[in-house]
Design a protein that fits this description.
Blueprint lengths: L2 H13 L1 E4 L16 E11 L2 E12 L3 E10 L1 H6 L3 E11 L2 E12 L4 E9 L2 E6 L19 H9 L10 E6 L4 E12 L2 E12 L3 H6 L2 E11 L2 E11 L2 E7 L2
Antiparallel strand pairs: 2-3, 2-14, 3-4, 4-5, 5-6, 6-7, 7-8, 9-10, 10-11, 11-12, 12-13, 13-14
Length: 250
């Protein structure tokens, strides 16, 4: 299998947030007086019928803020063929269950190339403050209003859900180059728990060729009831390379 296939698939995991893009130092520091709850998640990433990597997520929350890190690394056969590491970090404010992103940094290390992108909130949108890659097609600034960064989007979907927040995601995401819309609003009960399903829609920054190849992808997350909350257990997504899934280990 071409080595570039692993790189392209790994990039999609971090852009999904779900995934999914995945982190090191928190960009937004918690107030010294705040009592933070730290949450750690470990996920295995599978594609082509094999495990291709691991995602580790560490988040801290107070009543007023959240911050965290996530790291994706290829492992096993994929790691032997191509050692790839993505990290994203950032944070922002909390108002009830609503995330208010403030800062984000994403890094990629392919073994041959290292790049970094940073976003900071300016007014009602996240604006790129560092990063050389430009979108294939310019994105109207007005389209970025209210968009989340990849870390915030990942946490929006992977954090524990209440009965009120379960299967209610309808949010745009901007990674500094591309704009997507992620919805998880369809709800189905199964033996595994509740499946929230929807789509990953590419809406800005993509070339006509990219959109012709794949504009909309199906996306779903399986949640299981743990006490009073719903906990994410599996993420299922489709890229132009095929189907993939992310399975929670802890």
């Amino acid at each position: 299998m071409p080595r570039d296939t692993y790189l392209c698939l790994a990039q999609r995991f971090l852009r999904n947030a779900t995934l999914w893009a995945l982190l090191l130092c928190a960009a937004v520091m918690l107030p010294p007086s705040a009592t933070a709850e730290q949450i750690t998640q470990r996920w295995s990433v599978h594609a082509f019928g094999i495990k291709i990597g691991e995602l580790r997520v560490t988040m801290s929350e107070t009543q007023q803020s959240y911050s965290g890190t996530g790291i994706f690394e290829t492992t096993g056969l994929a790691g032997v063929l191509k050692k790839i590491r993505f990290s994203i970090d950032g944070g922002g404010g909390l108002k009830g269950s609503n995330l208010l992103p403030r800062a984000y940094t994403g890094r990629i290390n392919t073994g041959k190339r290292i790049s970094e992108t940073s976003l900071r909130r300016q007014g009602d949108r996240m604006v790129k403050t560092k990063g050389l890659q430009a979108p294939d097609v310019p994105i109207e600034p007005s389209a970025l209003k209210g968009a989340f960064d990849p870390l915030s989007m990942m946490w929006l979907t992977l954090r524990d859900q209440t009965n009120e927040t379960l299967c209610t995601v309808d949010q745009t995401q901007f990674d500094g180059t591309r704009l997507v819309r992620i919805t998880l609003k369809n709800r189905q009960t199964s033996a595994e728990g509740v499946i929230c399903s929807g789509t990953y829609d590419r809406i800005g920054g993509y070339s006509a060729e990219d959109l012709a190849e794949l504009k909309t992808s199906p996306l779903s997350i399986v949640y299981q009831k743990q006490g009073n909350v719903w906990r994410a257990q599996e993420v299922h997504l489709t890229s132009r390379h095929g189907k993939a899934k992310v399975i929670r280990q802890e």
